Amino acid sequence: MTDTPNTVAFSSERLEKAQEIIARYPEGRQKSALLPLLHLVQEQWGWVSSEAMDYVAEMLDIKPVEVYEVASFYTMYHLEPVGKHVIEYCRTGPCCLMGGEEVYAHLRQKLGINPGETTADGKFTIKEVECLAACGWGPVFQVREKYYMNLTNEKVDEIIDELSK
Amino acid sequence: MARKILTEHIHVPGIETFDVYRKQGGYTAVEKAIKSMSPEEVVEEAKKSGVRGRGGAGFPMGMKWGFLAKPEGVPRYLVCNADESEPGTFKDHYLMKTIPHLLIEGMIVSSFALGANKSFIYVRGELMYVIRILEKAIEEAKAKGFLGKNILGSGYDLELVVQPGGGAYICGEETALLESLEGKRGNPRNKPPFPAVKGLYQCPTVVNNVESISNMPWIVNNGGEAYAQIGIGRSTGTKLISASGHIQRPGVYEIELGLSVEEFMNSDEYCGGIRKGHHLKALVAGGSSVPILPANLIMKTANGEDRLMSYESLSDGGFASGTMLGSGGFIVFDETACIVKNTWNFSQFYHHESCGQCSPCREGTGWMEKVLHRIEHGHGSMHDVDLLVDITKKIEGNTICPLGDAASWPVASAIRHFRDEFVWHITHPSEATAPGAAYRGDMALV
Question: A131, A164, A161: which is closest to A147 by C-alpha?
Fold first, then answer.
């Protein structure tokens, strides 16, 4: 599992990126940077802790609750610690037609976990997601920014072995 | 070979780079518009083209542009809706990742037409890799003087910002998208006022889909009238169709509107027919929200006319026997598909994606999911089928945004055309819940 951040502060590189993002919006509209900054938080710590949310609130000069209500609305933000690799598996109709359910069963069996759970070694978390806009290339899952498409049981084995290294 | 407007150069190696895109005639529309046309003239060409919103609503884009308020001293915004999330739809994803400069060029001429100096492309957050492709394309265009201050020495300034979403289908609804872009929860706004009057930051705003905007370079280069010559009737131009499900060749295809459904389904240029050894059972022609059609209403309308890939032909017969072109998410089902299971699957999607603001949608989507779950799992009662129809009627039209309708139509249409299959699940629970079970009653297959 990714540790809770001890000292909540962006790395110098991400801090620079955050400042560049905040400057994109018109004067007084800095709250627009909220979603992009929460993505940066997740990029750095793997999940979005309440300490990190307070940090973002301070950075944008908004109330902490304005950050919590947004972070809890959007499904991409993990509000609890997750495994090193979060496998976001598409469960929506078109992927199922392409054999998504069989591949999904295989994935769960291989990792020995259900959606929302993390493997004992902290390497993998499975999260069920809705349509990833890749229906013709299904079945599909996503790990961080990467899309894995046209999945088969064999392909899943290879991907998991590769990510396990 | 059908005419291509958006995908003509999509297979040219290196087309994602500025130089190759430029060599294929890219950015000539920016030169033409900025050097020799007024913003009003560009709007006029968009109107003449008859191009309709490609995100699903099908509203004429030029007319939408015409509604934009222009109060003195107030900034105006163009926001591109790249929050593609409608199940069955993946065309914008394909277009942006493959030929990003097409959208950038479209954004520049469209922003110029609308008098916007800062424009946004709101991309669903899952597509972070596409966001990086777009940002790189923007940097390239900027370095060549097509973006930024004083574009091509014209005095026109434009900054493009790519904004990631956070994973919420509802943000494809334009006012929810604007809320999200302002850093809030994606709750749709009450209308009026419409975004054209009060949109982003309470300023006049136009929100257009990726594919709609990507048509603008061609329209500027060739004229709106030439665009209107393509297609059929009020369905002008071409359309990207995302084809998925039980077909030989899933993928994204650009068609001239007016192509017959039969040709699209069976031609090797497109879907290549149903999987070998199987038969067509049902079709969702325009993304998960539009009514599902049974095999006998797909190739022909109820009047026996050829069904065409156009806004008008697909909706021929209304909801009784027709459907909608929607976003062009073409999902094909063969006889192995269980309609009850698929309807339950879609209902989970809408329940998950309801923003929770309006009670008919918040409660109704969850209620439909529960009822469908029990029918699919062999615990349904005969009363449940009519109960579902009743719930759809109480959601439809009673919500701030169209998500309520979008959640109702798949359920209502599945029962309208496949009632026997629902009843069979209730009367034959053990057969219906067997692994891989699908109703093979006396329904027509093609």
Answer: A131
Which candidate from A93, A98, A133 shows the least CB-CB separation from B288?
Answer: A93
**B18-229 is a CATH 2.60.40.10 domain:** no
pTM: 0.96
pLDDT, residue A112, reads: 98
CB A104 within 8 A of CB A64: no
Q: How many CB atoms are located within 10 Å of the residue A98 CB?
A: 23
Residues in A whose CB is inside 8 Å of some CB of B read 24-26, 29, 31-36, 38-39, 60, 62, 66, 69-70, 73-77, 88, 91-94, 96-98, 129-138, 142, 145-147
* The two structure tokens encoding residue B302: 């109820």
pLDDT at B90: 98
B79 close to B122: Cβ distance less than 8 angstroms = yes
CATH value of B232-334 in 3.40.800.20, 3.50.50.60, 3.40.50.1860, 3.10.20.600 = 3.10.20.600
Could you say which residues of chain B have pLDDT below 50?
none
Centre a 10 Å sphere on the Cβ of residue B336 and count the other Cβ atoms it contains. 15
Q: Is A96 annotated as a binding residue?
A: no
Specify the pLDDT at position A1: 44
